[in-house]
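Key result, reporting period 2: structure in, sequence out.
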């Protein structure tokens, strides 16, 4: 996947910005999921 991003044309956003946004989105989703699962007494994993 990283190699595919590196082969994109120069008109696309910089690769590090795309990767950083994906990582931040994943961390935010995981944080919200952990908060919801820990706060709810019915979803003990």
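The corresponding designed sequence is given below.
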């Amino acid at each position: 996947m990283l190699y595919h991003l590196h082969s994109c044309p120069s008109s696309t956003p910089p690769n590090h910005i795309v990767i950083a946004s994906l990582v931040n989105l994943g961390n935010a989703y995981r944080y919200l999921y952990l908060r919801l699962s820990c706060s709810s007494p019915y979803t003990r994993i």
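The mean pLDDT is 72. The radius of gyration is 16 Å. This case is discussed further under Risks and Mitigation.
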